[in-house]
Amino acid sequence: MSIHDEVNRRKTFAIISHPDAGKTTLTERLLLFGNLIRSAGTVKAKKSGKFATSDWMEIEKQRGISVTSSVMNFPYDGYQVNILDTPGHEDFSEDTYRTLTAVDSVVMIIDATKGIEAQTKKLFKVCRMRGIPIFTFINKLDREGREPLDLLEEIEQVLDIETYPMNWPAGMGKGFLGVFDRHGKQFVQYHGNEDESVIPYSELDHSEHEELTSNLTYQAASDELSLLDEAGDQFSIDDVLSGKQTPVFFGSALAPFGVETFFDTFISMAPAPAPRKSTEGVIQPDNPDFSGFIFKIQANMNPAHRDRVAFLRVCSGKFERGLNVKLARTNKMIKLAQSQQFVASSRDSIEEAYAGDIIGIYDPNVYQIGDTLVEGKEHFEYDELPQFPPEQFKKVIATNVMKSKQFKKGIDQLVQEGAIQLYKDYRAESYILGAVGELQYEVFQYRMKNEYNVEVMFEPIGERIPRWLKSDQVDKSLFDERNMLVRDRENNYVVLFKNDFSLRWFKDKNPKIELIDLFEVN
Ligand code: G4P
């Protein structure tokens, strides 16, 4: 198969959701389709630590959640599917955001009984801002939930995106009859078990379906559907692919109901790997020379080997084991001898990969997040990965001062992985860690102890709003504990504002000082 054909059969996506919306249950269904697992219903086992698709680290097992993103891949219907797992816990990390730079689309799961929940709103918004195509699965239709129209309106308002229901539910919970499949022009009947039966629209007026069609719930849904057909948004694949419209599927991951139709439609519509911007212009995914970028680095996934693995998204060409590549940042040649693809809990060695694939490469401590690897004579770097400003800040202190060497080494390495951000108080040389969520501190503390043998304590500084300063506009006298002046890892000055009010007040008083919001810039 040509590189072009290989690229076009790749579908690389992430599933994002609020905890408990049903991501594990849905993922399991997809793994079943891909024959990666043999039976469903292992959700409980996962939560008790037995089913460990991505639970590499002890802390994940302890909390029953997936802390770091992992990758699952399988062939399906002629396609090569790559699912990037993202932590769904409420205090997910910057890692979660960064994973989105390595996918071509996302599946957003929403619990029909709850709608869009606070903590994950931001994650959804990041997808929206970055123009990533979003496919929505509204889950748990087998339970009494919110009105479908309500849910759509909420998605439209919160994400500022058009919705197009691919199917329309008739009832929910105990009275759930099934869905009108607008795409396949058929009614899919729910029978409360795994069996679904379909009635083409053209046969709905047959007498044997009278029991269904005379049901008031069915009729109400049918009326709503007519209204949607007349007054709702038109389906537009271009708008879907540019992230302006989200196709919405109603179903139940647990029943399961509507999952296979959802997946088949999603797979047929989701975009293949796209060209990517670099310092030398746009690089086509079927360009014969291999290239890719590192979006994540993880240390010690296997405690038996003290190894680091860099996760690389292939962007062009063909990866083969033993390939000689150049690390664009340093211009050094590297032989990619050890590489793995990640399937469920095992790490299989891989022979070849194409744009869209994610591979794990052994990192002898040379890679940084955002690094570009290119083959042969090529020389370019992919656009920098966006930084996601942390919201919480804590001073970190080693409880045993004798261990300052290991302390610094641990901090350096963990910060380099991008798991947490480091700032320094510009006067006292104390270390301040910034994170998107609380969980990152727990992971940091755990890993400092287990991997570097250093116990650390935190002194919370609280939630802060970071704004970067231009180097010629730093007037130290303007800052104090409220609006703390610190430096980031590259020694740029950053102000950690106490809250929105202090930020506004400062702006009013010092209109000439430019405050840079990295988040908005990206
Ligand atoms: P998560 O990974 O997004 O956190 O969610 P997960 O799949 O673990 O699902 C969270 C809970 O919701 C589980 O129940 C799961 O069985 C349930 N669930 C998922 N999909 C559906 C659905 O379509 N319908 C219904 N009714 N429930 C669904 P739990 O009681 O928390 O866990 P367990 O004891 O069943 O394992």
UniProtKB/TrEMBL annotation:
Keyword Oxidoreductase found: no
Protein family per UniProt: Belongs to the TRAFAC class translation factor GTPase superfamily. Classic translation factor GTPase family. PrfC subfamily.
Tr-type G domain location: 8-276
Main location per the UniProt record: cytoplasm
Compartments, record wording: Cytoplasm
Chain's gene name: prfC
Keyword tags: Cytoplasm, GTP-binding, Nucleotide-binding, Protein biosynthesis
Secretion signal span: none
Residues where GTP binds: 17-24, 85-89, 139-142
Highest taxon of the lineage: Bacteria
SUPFAM superfamilies the UniProt entry points to: EF-G C-terminal domain-like, P-loop containing nucleoside triphosphate hydrolases, Translation proteins
Primary role: Increases the formation of ribosomal termination complexes and stimulates activities of RF-1 and RF-2. It binds guanine nucleotides and has strong preference for UGA stop codons. It may interact directly with the ribosome. The stimulation of RF-1 and RF-2 is significantly reduced by GTP and GDP, but not by GMP.
Protein name: Peptide chain release factor 3
